[in-house]
Amino acid sequence: MGKITGFLEYQREDRDYEPVAERLRHWREFVLPLPEQDYVTQAARCMNCGVPYCQGTGSVAPGSPGCPVNNQIPDWNDLVYTGKWDEAARNLHSTNNFPEVTGRVCPAPCEASCTLNIDENPVTIKSIECAIADHAIAQGLKPEPPMARTGKKVAIVGSGPAGLACAQQLARAGHDVHVYEKWAKAGGLLRYGIPDFKMEKVHIDRRVAQMQAEGVVFHYGAHVGVNVPADQLLKDHDAVVLTGGAEKPRDLPVPGREFKGIHFAMEFLPQQNRRVAGEPADDREPILATGKHVVVIGGGDTGSDCIGTSFRQGALSVTNFEIMPEPPAHENKLLTWPNWPLKLRTSSSHEEGAERDFAVTTTKFSGENGAVKKLHCARIDAKMQPLPGTEFEIAADLVLLAMGFLHPVHEGMLKGLDLALDKRGNVSATTEDYRTSIDKIFAAGDMRRGQSLVVWAIREGRQAARAVDKFLMGSTSLPR
To answer: What is the C-alpha to C-alpha distance for residues 51 and 55, in angstroms, rounded to an integer?
Structure first.
């Protein structure tokens, strides 16, 4: 512990944002990094607790304290404080393949579990993590190819964070790894779901280049179960890992759903990401918020991304409805700490001018000439039923459904393979070995556990890689 009294001497200082008027004019990241010395000072605030809940407990429960990938946070805080940035990066990469990603888009359950959060003054763990990663990248990402090849061939289906983490671990273990991605580039929701203003795609490109230098082969436009036969993939590889994510969106089946102008979030967001990247547009009609009154239904991260994207496209107004009641502004620490608390969270996109309302349900849509023009809404009671007398209407030219995801898409690959599913419709596989109901096939990430955080996807990908390596070789040296 570098500074025993650091948490008493220094106040929390975190990264700031560009002013709203400036950041709405571009699609770049707008978080303003701190000077290097400020990260050193903030790292000095770490208490090196006897039980560091921030780095996780090893539990697989979604609400468990701290970091799902078990980052050794007190260790690399101390290394930053003592100026050992390179060693801090080696420590961080030992548990997390993509810390520059989690340092930008993770909601930081580690900070919720920080002992200093009892006083609402946690260590700026996420910012320090991002600074360590960016410092390492500035020195140049060095490939880590294996010393020997095993001769075993593994297919990874899907190149989101779970697939990328799994692929990199297996390649470093010496296996011949092939990643099959249905879109034009790797990254999954990291590339096509998260807007560039939250995370620019150069971070993915650099990691893909590193992985290619380590021997990973990427196959793009390869939609397994559609234009790549799943059974052939199984025949050609010694193991197959399914990391395709939970892509089946939750719909809103109310009268008027068929009107034009009502879209799922993941129809809207990928289009804009492709525009920013200069990728060719697909054959679908462009979905744009320009000059429109936009309503976003769903109060989570995906809804927030729709809000920020709509403002940058020039929406006249953006309203955000959430069916759940408004959570408290502050949690009761005695009841919640060190677990992830339920409380009101305001994202940078919400701060850009969105009107938010809670405990609202949409009862129907109405429109003109086949296009949506209004939402008809009502307040709900404790049983999630509309309250008589609370009905109201709101104008809407574009409605974006961001109510979460149900499970993986079943049509195509999963039905073709006839894999067993769990009661929620996810691919059934245990957390011990990630094996599915079919020999040689493993599943990890959102496809196995359901919609979750990027850091959980990375954890699952790493652990699935360990399970595959053990399955192929009889033993493994990959970390848990």
So the answer is: 9
Query: Can you give the residue ranges of every domain in the chain?
Result: 6-138, 153-247+407-473, 251-403
Distance CA 206, CA 218 (A): 14
Query: Which segment of 23-27, 331-335, 356-360 scores lowest on mean pLDDT?
Result: 331-335
The Cα 376–Cα 359 span in angstroms is 14
CATH architecture entry for 6-138: Orthogonal Bundle (1.10)
DSSP β-bridge partners for residue 177: 154
**What b/e string do you get for 265-303 counting C-beta neighbours within 10 Å, with b at 16 or more?**
bbebbbbbbbebbebeeeeeeebbbeebbbbbbbbebbb
Cα(first)–Cα(last) distance of the chain, in Å? Answer: 26
Superfamily of domain 153-247+407-473: FAD/NAD(P)-binding domain (3.50.50.60)
User: Could you read off the pLDDT of 34-83 as tens digits, one per residue?
Assistant: 999 999 999 999 998 999 999 987 665 656 789 999 999 999 999 999 99
How far is Cα 187 from Cα 193, in angstroms, rounded to an integer?
9
**In sequence order, what E strands does 198-301 have?**
217-220, 239-242, 248-249, 262-264, 293-297
Strand partners for 294: 318, 398
User: What global pTM score does this model have?
Assistant: 0.96
**% of the chain beyond a pLDDT of 70:** 98
The DSSP secondary-structure symbol of 252 reads: -
- Of 3.50.50.60, 1.10.630.10, 3.30.300.20, 3.30.200.210, the CATH number of 251-403 is 3.50.50.60
Note whether 404 and 301 are within 8 A (CB): no
The residue type at 101: V
